[in-house]
Sequence to fold (333 residues):
Amino acid sequence: MSTVKDTIKDMFTNHFIPFEVLESFKIADIGCASGPNTFLFMSEVIDTINNLSNQNQNQNQALEISIVLNDLHKNDFNSIFSTLPSFLDRLQEKHGYEFSQKCFISGVAASLYERLQPSKSLHFVHSSSSLHWLSQVPKNLENKGHIYIAKDCLPNVFEAYKNQFYKDFSSFLNKRSHEILPSGRMVLTFMGRCIPEPSNNDCCCLWELLAQSLLDMVSQGLIKKEDVDSFNLPLYTPYHEEVKEIIVKEMSFELEKIVIFKDNWDQDDSDDKKKSGQDIADCIRAVTEQMLVTHFGELFLNNVFKRYAERIANHLKTEKTKFINLTVSLRKK
Ligand SMILES: C[S@@+](CC[C@H](N)C(=O)[O-])C[C@H]1O[C@@H](n2cnc3c(N)ncnc32)[C@H](O)[C@@H]1O
Fold:
């Protein structure tokens, strides 16, 4: 979140945008989901802009803030909009009625790989934990017994995933390049990797353990092997050099910086590996459940995730594996 704050401060203090004459500052949170993080993000940007508009030598207290929240059509926008009144009440308590009347929050239900806003309308775009999700599973994937890239999968599986990410991330940059004003900024955080090897444990193990849990159901006769063979995740964790290469080739944005963050799967490194396994399995269930239900049906999901939690707990007893996140900061040319 500090990158978001620093970027907005930098936009104003270095006068990429003449702050004192700016009438409205328009922001998008892409892949916002419906949980608390999009509200944290909105709080952070609104507080930062409020501080700047009070501190700045050339005060601009007329500045209006517009925040567009985006996610897929099936996202629970109702939950976001029913939480908004209490969010706006808190804003009013913190910054006063006048300021709260100048904050406008709206939603756009569409894929981030499509156009979301009119041309040259956005100053700042943020996206967190969304861009590792591909627009689709790579076509014609032969990946029997796995659901993502794995140590012993065929080499063309890696190529197919990499190509799909190249296509999708380029398309995301191209669509945003029409919407963001010159010198506007983007801060994007998504899962990635910090070594070229695509099948190392930090990127693949989490998904391979889920594949093995599905295969456990096959051996119990609860799921068909063909159903596991034909299921693959629409996901890719890119190497940071791949991300750089796409940004340079696409040509719309200047890369300001890429920062790599590493977190242990069980962040508090607790001795209770069973609980850590359960927590991680719950987290992964939240983001994969809909896809699994669509492919396998609902019936065996509790069994699958019980096995998955056990497998993660056993893994944590012998290995420390990390989540790798990349934060990419970009400036529109
Ligand atoms: C793990 S959540 C991240 C939510 C929030 N940004 C955060 O940081 O906690 C990923 C979100 O990305 C959304 N997403 C995935 N693919 C998308 C797409 N093509 N277009 C828009 N949103 C997408 C999902 O629906 C989901 O809400």
In short: The chain has a mean pLDDT of 92. The two ends are 24 Å apart (CA to CA). Residues 31-33, 35, 37-38, 70-72, 75, 111-113, 128-130, 133, 135, 287 surround S-adenosylmethionine (CB under 6 Å). The chain has ten helices and seven strands.
